[in-house]
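Amino Acid Chain and Its Fold in Token Form
===========================================
Purpose: to set a sequence beside its fold so the mapping can be learned.
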Amino acid sequence: MPRAKWAVAALTVVLLSTGIAVLQRTEGARPAAVTTDDALPSRALGLSGHRRLVRELEQSGEHTPGTGARSPRTAPGPLREVSGPLRAARPLRLRIPSLGVDVPLNGDRAEVAWDTGGPAPGTAGTAVVTVEGLPLGELRRGRTIEIPRADSRTAVFTVVRISPGRASGREGPPGRAQLRLVGGETAVLARLTGQRRTR
């Protein structure tokens, strides 16, 4: 009987030693496994997949060299979602962060013009902006287009379709605010998804 107890005790010690060794190896390897740069900031900021994607798109647009530098007076405020169209206001500029575009509308560059016969960008309906000399074909779905307006608000649109041809952009649900960019042989359709205050 004492020999049986001794054997059980020896087996227990061996099993415990093996388990501790395995745990030590696992604990030692754990820090090397978590090496992604994005893991800590994403958790710390509490960003979901959708919000993180939107944040990455905005950050990539902010760091893309543009055709015009942003002045402190036109620095964008926080992006806010919209539940419906905005009130009418005169559009001032066209910004496409992913293409590095920041140009005046209906200004000296006549090749970037808002069709004043249609809705203003951000209001109900489809506003049409004709552009020449911009690489609209390089736009992708999910990218943003910004229209700073005279009411100190910037209407933010998200691209939903890029298609060949210069189709008229007045189709679509009458209550939805849309933007159609037409240039060369490319037409881009975008929907109003947010707004921000222009400082």
Summary: Residues 29-50, 60-74 have pLDDT under 50 and may be disordered.
